[in-house]
């Protein structure tokens, strides 16, 4: 129930925030609530992933990209993510979640999301996503990019992302 309340509050607030480009970095402030805690009394690792959804939503809504994709009958799906936890977040601490697109290939959009408390990184993640049609099937990347042109000149997918993507596709096959 707490997540629905947080989502409703978030969606009410995001509409009044300043506009962004899809190529900008979104920043959202959160506070660790009692329902975010695990048995160790720090923020549960799964809660980071849930809040990352809200960070991506903030960027898409504020850039009006969300409206463009829903008008097309598309929706985003996370296909892979990797997160590194560096420090714990404790009850009532506030923190910032930064979200930005770092590049794309012929199939995926890649985003970086970083949690910071007092300017120091507490967790960072890479997310791989694509877009599906409500009518079925995936949306080719060139169609997605047509909604966000012009592309920034500095946008170049780092090589380590390609390595991560290839490695994550092979991971677990022997299990």
Task: Break the fold down into its secondary structure elements and pairings.
Elements: H1 2-14, E1 26-31, H2 45-62, H3 65-72, E2 74-85, E3 94-104, E4 109-117, E5 120-133, H4 141-146, H5 159-170
Antiparallel strand pairs: 1-3, 2-5, 3-4, 4-5
Helix pairs in contact: 1-2
Describe the structure.
- By secondary structure, this protein is of the alpha+beta class.
- The protein is 33% helix and 30% strand.
- The chain has helices at residues 2-14, 45-62, 65-72, 141-146, 159-170; strands at residues 26-31, 74-85, 94-104, 109-117, 120-133.
- A 5-stranded antiparallel β-sheet has the order 1-3-4-5-2, with helices on both faces.
- A hairpin with a 4-residue loop joins strand 3 (94-104) and strand 4 (109-117).
Entry keywords:
5 helices, 30% strand, 175 residues, five-stranded antiparallel β-sheet, alpha+beta, 33% helix, Thiol Ester Dehydrase, Chain A, 5 strands
